[in-house]
Amino acid sequence: MSMASTKLGNKKPLPEIPLNIIEDLGKEESYLSLITKRFIKHKLAVLGLIVFVLIAFMAIFAPWIAPSSPTRITGDFAASPSSAHLLGTDQVGRDLLSRLIYGSRVSLSVGIGAVAIYVTIGTILGAVAGYFGKWIDMLIMRVTDVFMSFPYLMVILVLVSIMGPSLTNIILVIGLLGWPAVARIVRGSVLSIKEMDYVMAGVALGYSTPKIIFRHILPNCLAPILVNATFGIASAIILEASLSFLGLGVQPPTASWGNILTEAQSLSVLANQPWLWVPPGMLILLAVLSINFMGDGLRDAMDPRSIK
Amino acid sequence: MFQYMVRRILIAIPVLFGVTIFSFLIVNLAPGNPVDMQVNPYATEADIQTKKEALGLNDPIHIQYVHWLVNLAKGDFGYSFSTYEPVLTMIVDRIGPTLLLMGAALVLAYVIAIPIGILSATKQYSWMDYFTTSFSFIGISIPNFFLGLGLIYIFAITFQIFPTGGMNTLGNEGGLMDTLAHLIMPAIVLATGIAGNMVRYVRSSMLEILGQDYLRTARSKGLKEFFVVNKHALKNALIPIITVIGVDIPMLIGGAVVTEQIFQWPGLGQLTIQSIGSRDYPTLMAINLMAAIAVLLSNLIADMLYSVADPRIKYN
């Protein structure tokens, strides 16, 4: 106050604001383009994105890319790689390359399907807990603690064995058990965002509670949810592969990268037919690695502490 | 701090009950019950009903839960559907190898990951840093079973340095070196994912600390960089890592299932897979329940240690 009055008293002219600053304000980068720019700088993340797009391409266009049907018996069994079968054939005589190409469909549908389910559940539960607080929060968070206490893979194994192993059941089980981490993240974000003035303004304007939560609060929690979901897709792919490897996942003759590896549990296959287990293993590693790199790039790009 | 600890314990109690309820519901959801599994084929329907009545299987579900809980408290986990042995005996037989494997993996992971994480942070953006970052990501991303098969292929089949599986060579029971030779590959497999995560945690935690003012003070008073990093910075950098153990324990337990299966390690993980094969739900749920309680306790202990190590923490 006193500072301002002395300045006015001195009748100094107010410093003129350079016009170009005002123009720059209008052109300020959008959040999205800022994040894209920062993501592109992360070389491994870009590499991950390219590999992931290639795998997705393989999954979508499998019938056109694969040299033969993944379930048709085409030649000798356990034949080593040749010009007719680039990666050889499996124990039953099916073309391995075709099985690998079709296997990408299983991995991606489990990854995306399961994560879509649990992100939805986790976001709703977390938002309700964070926004309403009190006993609702207490109840939801304790249920979250209960779910977090069980080692993921163990409970999934038990539930899948009760429900019967199939692609749909794996997606459902991972989807129904995976939400606690998302719920915790969303709850934390909602707790801090709901205290902000613009949310108060929404309440004062009489907006409905769902509108405030979904239209005004949740869009601001998107960054951590997206990062978590990306890493989640990677771990769901590993989970499916592990279950199928143990014989409790996708059942043959449907091809999955995990169940192709099951055969390598026999020492003679492991020792003498490496083409049966090295390629599917490398594909799982490649897919999971590329998604994890993308997740890391997204996390760095969206981290508010590193925005300058 | 004391108040925090009391509140933390009070919160763990309802969670513990939640865990038992969840376990109980799943056992009930599963097909089969102790009577159906044990009747002789000549028993009449009336006999079965009498037996069920005697065992309380016709009681309302909440009464059955209380019964089950009381038995649990007495150490009675029920009987296995497949071997008819008490579940507790089966678990006691198997728990030793699993603890040995998990302990070895945890020690191995931390011994490798902590120094690498520190080095990676102090030399940020060097080739060393890029190298370890890439490798830690591979460690996180490689499926346990693929790494296990690869190690068996290289070290057991091609070079024949280590045995392909099991815990002891037949006829050579109890030899320490023999057990160690069997332990090393599964321990590496189980440690890899945990080490990969740990390197990331240590690196980012160390980076955060290295920028702080008190380290500039330490440097400006002429302290050697080695002590600045390993004495002043490390102490604070390792505090957040205490909570990581809460993440590592479930990872270890899940990983042990797959790892024990590949290496024929005679522990709880292998028992889990066998029980799934024979639809032995009482055994399965007992293992799950114990695992969940172990996770709950390790989280509780981690939070307690955290509040001791960092007095600033308050319960919110």
Automatic annotation (TrEMBL), chain A:
InterPro entries: BP-dependent_transpt_permease, MetI-like, MetI-like_sf, Oligopeptide_permease_AppC, OppC_N. It holds the Pfam family OppC_N. GO terms for cellular component: plasma membrane. It is a multi-pass membrane protein. NCBIfam families: Opp4C. PANTHER family: D,D-DIPEPTIDE TRANSPORT SYSTEM PERMEASE PROTEIN DDPC-RELATED (PTHR43386:SF1), OLIGOPEPTIDE TRANSPORT SYSTEM PERMEASE PROTEIN APPC (PTHR43386). This is ABC transporter permease. It comes from Peribacillus psychrosaccharolyticus.
TrEMBL record, chain B:
InterPro entries: BPD_transp_1_N (IPR045621), MetI-like (IPR000515), MetI-like_sf (IPR035906). It is a multi-pass membrane protein. Its main location: membrane. The chain crosses the membrane at residues 9-30, 99-122, 134-159, 179-199, 237-263, 283-306. Coiled coil: none annotated. Pfam families: BPD_transp_1, BPD_transp_1_N. Residues 95-302 form the ABC transmembrane type-1 domain. It is found in: Cell membrane. Keywords: Cell membrane, Membrane, Transmembrane, Transmembrane helix, Transport. This is ABC transporter permease.
